[in-house]
Amino acid sequence: MVRPRHARAIHRNSIILMIQLYHRHAPAATPSVMAVRAVFCRPMSLARRLLLRASRSAWLAGQLRDRAFLRRAVRRFMPGEELPAALGAAAELAALGIGSVLTQLGEQVAARGEAARVRDHYLDVLAQVGARRLPAEISVKLTHLGLDVDRAACLADVQVLARAAADAGSFLWIDMEESCYVDATLEIFRSVRSAHERVGVCLQAYLRRTPADLGALLPLAPAIRLVKGAYNEPATIAYPSKRDVDAAYLVLAERLLERVARREARAVFGTHDLALVKRVRERATTLRVTPGSYEVHMLYGIRSPEQRALARDGVPVSVLISYGTHWFPWYMRRLAERPANVWFVVRNLI
Ligand SMILES: Cc1cc2nc3c(=O)[nH]c(=O)nc-3n(C[C@H](O)[C@H](O)[C@H](O)COP(=O)(O)OP(=O)(O)OC[C@H]3O[C@@H](n4cnc5c(N)ncnc54)[C@H](O)[C@@H]3O)c2cc1C
């Protein structure tokens, strides 16, 4: 039988193992918690790269997914694995004047039947949102709806969801995934947007191509959720430095706000970067765009007091609530966004 102290040590070592497996130069000697802290608490891209690579490892997901310490840590970003927990959180946020965007975790499904089940799940979500009159929208990943398996069927499913979202008084967001999916995602967005108004797409400021993509979408009077970008992309494709990404974000935000001023776009700023939000709001004031005409969306569990403060200030705020059992890659990306969060995971071991 494994005694609790030994179990904790095994769990701690699985994190260390993860570091060693994904970074060839990790210390070979028996590592300590201090070593974990040294790797993850320094503001460097090594930890980010490590975590983003880990997010793509099915083996690692299998090793760590059922560990109690990791499940405890995940709860910080997720009200629960099941839809009722997400709807409950949405109702609580609604009472505070904050909207929600619901997303079932999952990506890159390999079978058409699986994709059809995801579509049906979202149809059920929209029915429940409509019945409970929740101020909630949905956000989907196209690879979760079978983009890799059958693009035509994926497009048909997105059309179905866009119609159901409109019927429920809700809205359909399309996430943006890795750079290899951008063309297909924008193509599907364009097709669906030509028939439905209540659909929007996410654009990533870190991609060098995004200014051109935004320019091509603007004539559609689009709904755009602007984010920095969460994936591991080469420098030829995405800006590697935070400073460049922030600068690109601000330029794109200003272009969107100009369209909002003419009522030709719905602009959502999906970021927890409060300095950036402040600068976006200053640009909005300069352009005479009122706080009620653009939105800020953040993730569940991050910057909650600031979400409420923005809402009190008249900015429409929504919180993206993720749920589901397939949380490992998504959680690794959340850790990569702020590698110091790994310390929070380690604390759950001790
Ligand atoms: C509503 C929403 C939808 C999104 N949709 C997509 C999408 O479709 N495609 C995509 O590629 N990316 C998406 N993202 C993720 C996004 O690309 C960034 O990876 C993520 O938002 C972190 O960047 P940031 O803008 O918050 O700025 P950062 O500069 O990374 O962070 C600013 C500050 O926010 C806090 N913070 C940020 N992240 C965390 C965290 N995980 N835990 C604790 N504190 C944190 C920290 O204090 C940090 O210093 C989405 C993000 C949001 C909020």
Describe what this molecule looks like in 3D.
This protein is globular. It starts with a helix and ends with a helix. Strands 1-2-3-4-5-6-7-8 form an 8-stranded parallel β-barrel, surrounded by 7 helices. By secondary structure, it is α/β, with parallel strands linked by helices. It contains 15 helices and 8 strands. Helix content is 52%, strand content 12%. Flavin-adenine dinucleotide (FAD) is lined by residues 175-176, 202, 204, 225, 227-231, 242, 270-273, 297-299, 302, 320, 334, 337-338, 341.
Low-confidence stretches: 1-17, 19-44
Give a quick account of the main beta sheet: strands, pairing sense, barrel closure: 8 strands, parallel, barrel
- In which range does the helix fraction lie? 40-55%
Please state the CA-atom Rg, rounded to the nearest Å.
20 Å
Q: What would the principal axes of the Cα set say about the shape?
A: globular
How far do the termini sit from each other? 20 Å
Bound molecules: flavin-adenine dinucleotide
Provide the structure class: alpha/beta
Fraction of residues in β-strands: 5-15%
* Strand arrangement in the largest pleated sheet: 1-2-3-4-5-6-7-8
Q: Topology as H/E string?
A: HHHHHHEHEHEHEHEHEHEHEHH
Mean pLDDT: 86
**Count of runs of 4 or more consecutive helical residues:** 15
Say how many strands there are: 8
Oligomeric state of this protein: single chain
